[in-house]
Please model this.
Amino acid sequence: MSEIKPVYNCTQDELYAAIILILKSYFEEQALFAGLKGKYTVDYGNELMVKVKAAQLMPSDSQRLGEQGLLREEMLKQLNLALDKVNRLRLYIRDAYTDKAVRELKLKIAGFDDYNEAANANWDKVRTLMVTAKEFITTNEADLMANNNMPATFKAGFDALEAEIQPQITEMLNYRENNKQATAEKLKMNNAIHAEVMALCEDGAFLLRDDDAKKSQFIFSSVLEIITPPGASSLTVKVTRVSDGTAVLNANVKINREGTPEREAMNTEDGAYFGNLSAGTYSVQVDIEGQVSFVSFKDVETGVNARLDVKIGV
Model:
C-alpha cells in the first residue's frame, strides 16, 4: 500500500480554518448555490462542517509523536539494562573460550552480530539478540559457569529480563505502526474533505465571477492568505555526539509541520538546514542508519532563523 500524502499545500490547522471560512461564505450565499445544484442545501453545509470537526478531533501527529517519544524513553531504559546483560555475557564468553577462533564463533552464535544495530535502538534486533543470547546461555551454561566465571544467578536474571522486554518491544512496534495508520486515516479524511471543498469553491467562483470580492471568498489560496500571511523563516538542526561534540554525519533529519509534506536533509558540520518555512510548530525527527534516535518539536516564528541542537549518545 502506497503512502498517503496530503494533496493540500498547507497545515492541517490551516486547512480546517480555511474550510470553516469558506463554509461561512457558503451559508451566506446558499440560495445562490442552490440555484446551481440541488445538493447545495443548508444541511449539505452542516454535514460538511461535521466532517471538518470530526477530522479536527482525530489525534494530531504531534500528540501521537509525543506519546511515542515517552514510550521510547521508557524502552531506552530497558535497552540499557539489556545491553548491560549482553555485555556481561560477552565477558563470560571471553573467559570461557580462550581459543580466539572458537571465541569468535561462540560470539556469533550468541547473536553479537546484531549487537551494534540493537544498541542503536533497532527493536527487532534487540528482540533477536535477547532470544539468541538466552538460547546460547542455556546451551552453554556449563562452559560459562566453569572456573567461577558466570555466576549461577546470571541465567535466571537474563531469562527474566528477556521475558519482560519482549512484550514491551511488541507494544513499542505496534504503537509505531498504529501511529502510521492513524496518520494515514487522518490524511485520507483531510484529502477527501479538501477535494469536496475545492469542488464547492469552483462552483462558488463561477457563481460569483462578476464580483471579485465575493469570488475571492471561494478561492482557496486567497482564503489561506487571510489565515497565514506569507513569511520567510528557516530552521537549522545540528546533530552532535554527547561524547566529543562532533557532528553525526550519518544522521538524517526530518521535519514536518502538521499536515504538510515532510522535508528531510542530512546533517553536516553546520547542521541540517531547512529554508523558506512558514511559521508554526515543526516535529523534528533524527534517524541514524534507519533508526529513530530523537523526536522533538520546534516553534518557528515568522522571519526568524530558528536553531535546534540535538545531542546523541553515539
User: Anything to note?
Assistant: The first strand starts at residue 233 and ends at 241. The CA atoms of residues 23 and 45 lie 7 Å apart. Residues 154-207 form the longest helix (54 residues). The chain has a mean pLDDT of 88.
